[in-house]
Amino acid sequence: MAVPSVELTGGVKFPMIGFGTWQSAPDVVGTAVRAAIDAGYRHIDCAWNYFNEKEVGQAVKDKITEGKIKREDVFITTKLWCTYHRPEDVKRGFQESLRGLGLDYIDLFLIHGPPAFKPGPKWLATDDSDYDDTDYVDTFKAMESLVDEGVCRAIGLSNFNTQQLERVLQNCRIKPAVNQVELHPYLVQQKLVDYCKSKGVVITAYSPLGSPGRDFAQPGEARVLEDPVVLDIAKNHEKTPAQVLLRYHLDRGIVVIPKSVTPSRIRENLQVLDFSLTADDIKKLNSLDRNNRYVDWSFCKTHKYFPFRD
């Protein structure tokens, strides 16, 4: 069964199930991406600061060489990191990802988050002295030239709240096609989802399973995959909890990018097209909302453009 797509600005087809590569180590991510392509994924989500673009790109090229896919068959998303926000640095940041992936163009390029950090070898802010005041609106405007040049098919945002997204929409020439944010039943973000839909901005859900394998997971934290409501719905549909959580997003019209390095789970995460959740299922899952953000960007909470401040 073919993965459905949504249409982005400019008529670009965006597969609604993608393959995530965050926190997949360089020595395993290539094997995982090859397994994903073999399983039927045609949307790969990357980022400069995942530090595995080279291996992801090589895996894609391997499958092209094998004749499994053509370049135009696979949709590649990557992201501009916070140290490249100054308009004069945007193209350099883009080209680093392009070279790392070994591709001629990127399908979707996102600002990874609104806060800017000072350019240089130190990629993560450790205190306020590492912050930069560059306005993300100026960063986005610089990204528009990448579309003009034909090296990027679409541009968008990640980790932007409604107010920040509104500022971009008020000042951009090319509308952001996507806002990629953390979403799962413990973090429903219905107001943000509704706002994006009202503006024609597609939502992509990262950490759709609650990111249980992330390296900074806390002992004893609540796990959405183990919630009794999720388990009960999974039993009723004869599906796994992960499949229920992925279907939850699809039934809300949201693109989803699960991550795994285990071939059986990679295949399992794609097997969500043969069922749908009921309206009651979705109501029950929405009722689990507890504003539980697993990826909180705590390294820049005092930045003036921090996106998760209430």
Describe it for me?
The protein has 310 residues and is α/β, with parallel strands linked by helices. It has one domain: NADP-dependent oxidoreductase domain (TIM Barrel, Alpha-Beta Barrel). Helix content is 35%, strand content 15%. It is built from ten helices and twelve strands. The strands form three sheets. Strands 3-4-5-6-9-10-11-12 form an eight-stranded parallel sheet. Helix 1 (26-39) packs parallel to helix 2 (53-65). The protein is globular. The termini are far apart. The mean pLDDT is 95. It is an enzyme of class 1 (oxidoreductase). Keywords: NADP, Oxidoreductase. Pfam families: Aldo_ket_red (PF00248). Residues 17-289 form the NADP-dependent oxidoreductase domain. GO terms for molecular function: aldose reductase (NADPH) activity.
* CA-based gyration radius: 19 Å
Helical content class? 25-40%
Q: What is the averaged pLDDT score?
A: 95
Following the backbone from N to C, one meets helices and strands in this order, namely: EEEHEHEHEEEHEHEHEHHEHH
Calculate the terminal CA-CA distance, rounded to whole Å.
Answer: 41 Å
The CATH topology is given as TIM Barrel
Q: What's the number of extended β-strand segments?
A: 12
Globular, elongated, flat, extended or rod-shaped: what is the shape?
Answer: globular
CATH C-level name: Alpha Beta
**Widest sheet: strand order?**
3-4-5-6-9-10-11-12
Brief sketch in words of this structure:
The chain is an alpha/beta fold.
